Amino acid sequence: MYNSFEELKKDCEECRRCGLCETRHNVVVGVGNPEADVLFIGEGPGENEDIQGEPFVGRAGKLLDKMLNAVDLDRNKNIYIANIVKCRPPQNRDPKPEEQEQCIDWLRNQVRLIKPQIIVCLGRISAQKLIDPNLKITKEHGSFIEKGKFLMMPMFHPAAILRNPNQKPEAFEDFLKLRDKIKEICPDTYK
Ligand code: URA
User: Fold this and answer.
1) Which of 28, 83, 86, 120 to mutate to test the pocket of ligand 1 (most atoms within 8 A of CB)?
2) What is the pLDDT of residue 154?
3) Which stretches of the chain score pLDDT less than 70?
4) How far is CA 101 from CA 59, 77, 82, 136, in A?
5) What is the pTM of this model?
6) Is 89 close to ligand 1, i.e. is its CB under 6 Å away?
7) What residues does each domain of the chain span?
């Protein structure tokens, strides 16, 4: 249990719980407002994130920022962004189940400190780990699923949208639904 983000960040940056620590350049803990009501969770850092130490700073990240900004969300202001695993899997392979398992405690501690109301899962890996191991993102993206104290929403991963630009209109609809829900349950996000 942590009382502050600084303590958590310091320990997380020294983590050696799985093999990913051998090849990483930076531990990508997260970015944003630690008091946000809305938390976005991706899969894991890619090459750019590993180098810069911040989530979603590559091409997919630029697209994510664009969609966020279209609904007045901003990584430096009113949301927080983290990943399931904090260190880059080599060659950007999917993080292995055991790597996810070793890492998930950092995310749990982040969630305890942030206390978000809405958690958006970006992509299959995040949605299956946090919502339902059998979740089909193509079917359930854009829906709200109540889980404990949180309202969870699976969304397409921005990298998937880059590979499949025909998903863009649907992805954008999901952001509009998210905006409406934020206005309904945590309007201070927009103050
Ligand atoms: N993809 C992710 O899932 N997370 C990142 O931080 C970058 C790319």
Assistant:
1) 83
2) 98
3) none
4) 27, 30, 16, 21
5) 0.98
6) no
7) 5-182
pLDDT value at position 48? Answer: 98
Nearest CA, atom 7, ligand 1: 56
Specify the ligand 1 atom closest to the Cα of 158: 1
Judge if the beta carbon of residue 37 lies within 6 A of ligand 1: no
pLDDT value at position 180? 98
Residue 89: Cβ-neighbour burial (10 angstroms; 0-12, 13-18, 19+): buried
Residue 30 CB less than 6 A away from ligand 1: no
In this structure, the dihedral spanned by the alpha carbons of residues 85, 89, 92 and 95, taken in order and rounded to 10 degrees, is: -50
Among the listed residues 16, 98, 84, the one whose alpha carbon sits nearest the alpha carbon of residue 45: 84
Q: Where are the beta strands (DSSP E) in 8-106?
A: 31-32, 38-42, 80-83
Residue 46 CB less than 6 A away from ligand 1: yes
CATH superfamily name and code, 5-182: Uracil-DNA glycosylase-like domain (3.40.470.10)
| pLDDT value at residue 70 | 98
User: In this predicted structure, what is the pLDDT of residue 174?
Assistant: 98
Q: What is the structure's pLDDT at 1? A: 86
Please name the helix (run of DSSP H) or strand (run of DSSP E) that holds residue 88, with its range, or none: none
